[in-house]
Amino acid sequence: MTFLEWNNIIAEYFFNPDRAGKNVHLFISKQELISFGRKYAEDGESDDDIWIDFLTSLRINLAGCPKSDNIFEKAARAAERWRQGGYQRLDGKSQEFPPYISCLVFSVLPLLEIQGDYNTNNYYDRMEDFILQNKFYEFGSKPKKLQNLRNKLKIIDSLWEGLSHWANVRMNGGLGNFKAISFSNKGWKFVGKPLSQCILSPTSIRKLPEFFYRASLTPKSFYSDDFFKDLLVDKGMQWLGLRSDTIELIRKGNKDEIGKTVIEMVKTEFWQWIGEQHQITLKGEVERIIRTQTVVPLKLQFKHNHNGEILFSYRANYQSDPPRDLKLGNFEDIYQNEHWSKTLSLDFSDSRELTDYTNKWKAVSTFREMRLFINGRHFQLGSQFWIETVKLSRIDEMYLLCKNSIRDRVKNWCENGCLEFKDYSALINLPQGYSLFWFRRPNISHPDFEMLTIFSEKSIIIREGTGLKVGYNSFLDELLPEVELLNAEGDEYIFMEYQDGNEQILLDKHPDVGGVWCLPLDVRVGVPFSIKLEGEVIEGIQRNYEIVRPYIGDLRNDKVPKRNGFGVKVDDNVYFQGNLIQGIAEPTQLADRNPFTPSNKWSLTKRDSTPFQVSTLLSWLVAVGKSSVADFNHVFELIYHQSFPEKQTDLQHKRRSSLNLLDYLGYIDYDYLTGKILALPPKLITIPADKGRRALLIGCYTESLLRAISEYCDLNPQDIGLVITKQSGQNFELLLPARILFECNKISVLENLARTVSISFDEWYILKLKAMLPALLDYKEFLLNSCPSPSWDGVDIDQKIFALNSLTFQSATSFDRSFELVECRPRYVTEYGLWISGNYYNVEKNWGKYLFLHHHSEKLPTYDHQLVLAGTGKVFRNDTDLAIPAQLPLPKLYARIIMQLTGEAPEFKQLELTGKRMGYNIYRNIKGSFIENLFKFKLNIDIEIIHHPL
Question: Rounded to two decimals, what is the model's pTM?
Answer without folding.
Answer: 0.90
